[in-house]
Amino acid sequence: MQVAVQDHPHDKWVALSNTTLGMLVATINSSIVLISLPAIFNGIGLNPLEPGNVSYLLWMLMGYMLVTAVLVVTLGRLGDIHGRVKIYNLGFLVFTLTSVALSLDPMSGGGGALWLILWRVAQAVGGSMLMATSAAIITDAFPARQRGMALGVNIVAAIAGSFIGLVLGGVLAEWNWHSIFWVNVPIGVVGTVWAYRSLHDTGVRRPARIDWWGNLTFAVGLTALLAGITYGIQPYGGHTMGWTNPWVLAGLIGGSAVLALFCLVERRTPDPMFPLRLFRDASFTGGNAATLFGSVARGGLQFMLIIWLQGIWLPLHGYQYENTPLWAGIYMIPLTAGFLIAGPVAGHLSDKYGARLFAAGGLALMAVSFGGLLLLPTDFGYLWFALLILLNGLGGGLFAAPNTSLIMSAVPPDARGAASGMRATFQNAGMVLSIGIFFSLMVAGLAGSLPRGLESGLTAQGVPADTVQTIAGLPPVGTLFAAFLGYNPVRELLGPDVLGQLPAADAQTLTGREFFPQLISGPFHDGLVVVFWFAIVLSLLGAVASLVRTRPAAAAPAPDEGTVKAAPGAAARASRANPGS
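Given the sequence above, the corresponding structure tokens read:
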């Protein structure tokens, strides 16, 4: 086991800068594809709205998040055993190489989609290495009095990256879809070389065996559970969603059972990958619960705002459907700005005044913003919308760093890699859960009113009755995906044959910018009411969880003053020369 050393005073800032770059590129990549899906599928010649291609769409959308949710704990634990910086550096290298492979997709159609999905999964392995270790490296590098500030910069960069990716993806996709993957390459090369040259482990390691059974049961259980939720969005057997699909039920029930088995395995193994003993600390438990609740609420908000903007508001305000992905990202900039403003400030102030109230207050502020969004009409005035999503971003920024500081300061130094991975698992799993939960709630809200709205609107424009009945009977999720991807849903639903039979004026009205937004605005608002009330409840539950305190008798050992630094410095060289000291 290595001991703490006193390194060059600037080394901790090198560690912060590099890990923040790593987190930024990893999270930008999770959303840059999200906004670029229309350009990607057009580029490989595949219509994502055809029934047989929905699985490609879902795995392109959620595969990266699912893999990171599954792997971060395992990789964080490996960092505790073999060195956090070693895992982190390898993650940067894997991420960069897979970005090159993604940009060189040689196939088209389903083969091209599979190429992208498989390499995205491989890229997620590299991203998981970065996510699993960055918070632990910073916790090791900074003394307790500066830890909140440092984690604030890192965590806010990570969360803001998911929104920056929306704007960046929209801009790059307008030029060439390959560029959304190429943009990672120069950043990855610089980050990889910098990490290998500047960061070296001098922190506490704990020699241990790899918990193979724990890793296996966790990966199988969580994958099955999250995949079941993913496929539950798809229609099945005449139902609007797939929750009665035997495979979905098998994933949900079987995945939960395997995760229960995983908990039994972890209680019995001497060196668990997921140290359940850490949950004896109430601050650690409450912090992770708040992370999960906040992640579900925030992730669902992102998807609902994109659909709201792309499917309704932007077309009503004169934007062509093919341009809505880019402008949706631009109009959501206040949300990102809120994170960037509040995050570092909250981290700094929480070092002085305590993290708990900032974390709880941030989620409470998010709940207020969700309430305000409930009161907006579907065709809102942008100033009020911008102020409310700015408020939501400020709340998320106030929560992120103090919450992470609470979690990481509640564990002993030799478990920080596992704790960092566990926190990232709750956050990433929350993002995947949010898609399944929020889409399901939205579809439930649309199911009652959307078919009637489609039937009356299409009939009024002279669409044949049999076509009207067919379209009105389609699952609402197809309409949602069309709006989400920046397609004109009516043009896709009717097709050129039906449109060609209608009078020119009716066809022009049906495919114009205003017909579909006006048709769906009422049913969509019904769905928004359900979704945002759920987000309010989750945010308030997270705020309460953030206030949970550890009893003094069960307090965790006091955090050390920092043990991992960057390489330059005589003391670091001395430590490497005497590894057994």
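Residues 1-9, 553-581 have pLDDT under 50 and may be disordered. Try to locate this feature in the token string yourself.
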